[in-house]
Amino acid sequence: MVSFRFPFSFSQPPRPPVSATANAASRPFSTAAILSVAVAAAAGGAGIAISQDPNTPFLQSALNFLASNRSSFGPMWGSLSLSENSSPVTESRTGVSFPAVLGDTQRLLGVGLRRKAILGLKNIDVYAFGIYADDGDIKKCLSQKYEELSASEVKGNEALKEDLVESDVSMTIRLQIVYGRLSIRSVRSAFEDSVGSRLQKFSGSDNKELLQRFTSQFKDEYKLPRGSIIDLSREHGYVLRTTIDGKEVGSIQSKLLCRSILDLYIGDEPFDRKAKEDVELNLASLLGK
């Protein structure tokens, strides 16, 4: 699990009474004393008590305790996974919310809306979508190239999107259905058009067999009421795994297909340009110094 680590992120119990002598001795260490309370709180959580020597500064007692007991309990660093302390993000036009993290490691980079014109007269909101990428994979695959650049330089780099699409970074496009009368047949037809055009764009041929393998996963037996979730996940090795409401409906190993799917959302002509810009901005903040 990818974790961000923060020192001493523990709740602190009330400080015990300290004698005048000990208080005077520890006065120069006002900042350190706060740290020591956190150490005491952490040890208390492990069922261990720190005794206070009235002739020794409180900080020194705590440090002596840590040195002699560091093997008797876990590391004194609070481990905070991505999924903890992360609030959902709402797509403003639809009110649909997306978890900030999927599967503990995939970070939400942007949210958007897929709209579709009916008979050229009216646009309907079909689904809201969230774009996720694995935090560790981003750093592993992209940080070496961009770590010396500032965030603004990373965002302005034309190669950033191409590097993300080409690299073996685990990603998920989560679709949450908004249009209440959407049929699985309509979804299948829409992907035939949009994914089919991208397959043609990147390979120079229609790739009918590959397209049919993908669209055939959306069988008529599946229902898509408002709120249904479709996950299109690129896994390591360029495997595209499709799930509907948590149920896997198929997987296909194809770098071309993965690229074609991602291009719909972060390519040159994305469904929602603002979502693509958010992805670039958040990537830049992760990679830039």
From TrEMBL:
<dbReference type="InterPro" id="IPR036298">
    <property type="entry name" value="Chalcone_isomerase_sf"/>
</dbReference>
<dbReference type="InterPro" id="IPR044228">
    <property type="entry name" value="FAP1"/>
</dbReference>
<feature type="compositionally biased region" description="Low complexity">
    <location>
        <begin position="1"/>
        <end position="12"/>
    </location>
</feature>
<dbReference type="GO" id="GO:0016872">
    <property type="term" value="F:intramolecular lyase activity"/>
</dbReference>
<feature type="region of interest" description="Disordered">
    <location>
        <begin position="1"/>
        <end position="22"/>
    </location>
</feature>
<comment type="similarity">
    <text>Belongs to the chalcone isomerase family.</text>
</comment>
<protein>
    <submittedName>
        <fullName>Fatty-acid-binding protein 1</fullName>
    </submittedName>
</protein>
<dbReference type="Pfam" id="PF16035">
    <property type="entry name" value="Chalcone_2"/>
</dbReference>
<dbReference type="InterPro" id="IPR016088">
    <property type="entry name" value="Chalcone_isomerase_3-sand"/>
</dbReference>
<feature type="domain" description="Chalcone isomerase">
    <location>
        <begin position="106"/>
        <end position="279"/>
    </location>
</feature>
<dbReference type="GO" id="GO:0006631">
    <property type="term" value="P:fatty acid metabolic process"/>
</dbReference>
<dbReference type="InterPro" id="IPR016089">
    <property type="entry name" value="Chalcone_isomerase_bundle_sf"/>
</dbReference>
<dbReference type="GO" id="GO:0009570">
    <property type="term" value="C:chloroplast stroma"/>
</dbReference>
<dbReference type="InterPro" id="IPR016087">
    <property type="entry name" value="Chalcone_isomerase"/>
</dbReference>
<dbReference type="GO" id="GO:0005504">
    <property type="term" value="F:fatty acid binding"/>
</dbReference>
